[in-house]
């Protein structure tokens, strides 16, 4: 985004100001309670309404004025926002003048938490502005946003016509709010050559949601508001997602806005119902998952007001539903017309029985057993600390304090208007939503439906509720310490608690905030370098850069990672494109090649992970055979193959690397940090005998993701060192592994120089030594593929070609499988492929 022009930045700032003003104008008309006004909730809600109103106006411009210039669309959006802001300018000024609690009375601990909070916000903006965009889903959204910029027509969404744009195929049922916002950001910067200002959309929603969380938290106390905000933005999955332009901040902000209206409005009836319905309708435009907000909003309303058959309550609920339906019915009705259902995630390729996608999702995402579904699905908020940090754990004592003091069940059944304090009512609504959502997830799992647990990010919509409950605990703990006598006791309790809390969040800042900087090797001195230069350290980007610079301009590419093709400047065929259905049905690699060429496809773009269209079709063998394809780019598992000119490559006799012919080590370790694998703690290692099964000694029902088993060429010597498998630098080889069992295995290649030092991936065109040559931290950087093994199926052959670095003189092979899975390595072979063109090797791996 640093390449964005000053004029575009100025226009974007103006858009933000106008949107905030228009949001405040609408918020000023809402029936807020005095308690909500005292806490600044109308201002926070107005700021949060701004991006939703902007997105809906962008959708309207694309739909009502198709094909018109993007400048006209942007001008109309900004003009309407300005009119709304001016129309209600007097009430806005009254809201701004409303007295609110001053910050002067905050304790030093509260100021410390504020400092940490603003540090998080600053890092989020730095991440969005100075770090390149490489996240898969975010690149897909920006690809569709670019498509809308090219067509300026809402009918181009969803992207199901591969004849236009880049050829991306995405049969999404998400409403078009986010992609319309991306389109509008492209219109403001007057081009779609790079994401640019689109990187600000998700942070905009997140930061407005943050103000909402803080304001609602202040309905309990000021300290609770600060604590809730810190817990909210400190969740790594939400923070990193917003910085990576993921969509999750939109439904989270939408749901927070709906809950704020339910707990912050004065009274019940038709008028509150209209505004609650408007906000719920806007939230329904964020994501297809938002359809769950309808029952959750009704549950929050019932929990907040009490389970009494009150005419006004029923009217409120009816008007809420009617208004929300009027606002948000169109995109879901359109989905029914196009796909046959309002919400769907089952494109035609997913429905092919031979590809076995359900098994893939269960194995790859670790939801096979009941223990895994409960631990990593229903209760992921507590078990996946790398995603949610301590937020769910901090919410538990807050929930206990609320239940202990307010006795919510009795008050819920016997509630009468005016009989409970405001903080009891809003907490009852929050706790009700928290319980109803988890109960719904548990019920869906018991019914055999894994849709709600398949994606780790779906549970982020609970984060506002979790943060409010955690904020109560933080505030109450501080108050309890302050009330202790004598003062020495108070200091003895308060100071360690605040230091522990600050240390926890500070550690998150260091680990999470520096994640991308470490990934791309970015330092303060390189912040202002072009993003393309920073991405030179990212092998996936180098693969598509090869396509952009070394292939014909009219080349058509079959991509197994179509998101990365955003940077390729070439037309693609996505692996989900229904035109590939007969290709996937082929059973012979040569006939598959002819079918692909018949579609005009010349190149294959392959990432370092496996999908069913790769390993359950002849595509993997097509890539492995040099007589059918030429490997023209390869670093790690990121590769490009040429189908049209396979060349005259010849395979040499294979070197047997099987257990027995060469020593192999089995090493088990405990992995901390979830799938990221921040820390590996060695547990047990032994020599792998020929034909021996690799499986854990104990089949524990829980914590299966935290157990990993590595099979590596080498002997047990305390460090699992890998003796040389001699190779030549800058040459092509093929690795064949015969595997059986039940596991989703990852295959790694480790390359060493003449002195036996491990080589890292290319950085800026150079191959450098790994940071920890003797350790195991570099393994994930050199994954070359994956193999899915299922009980009852014949042994599977994993085959992958690769090109060694120029400095490489030997290699090591590692096969990793996690959890209580079993695997047997039946055979391993390595063979050189000679007489190939050295062009790609010389240019791209030196």
From TrEMBL:
Transmembrane segments: 43-64, 71-88, 108-126, 197-217, 223-242, 249-270, 282-301, 313-333, 382-403, 424-449, 461-481, 488-506
Organism: Ramlibacter humi
Keywords: Membrane, Transmembrane, Transmembrane helix
Protein name: Glycosyltransferase RgtA/B/C/D-like domain-containing protein
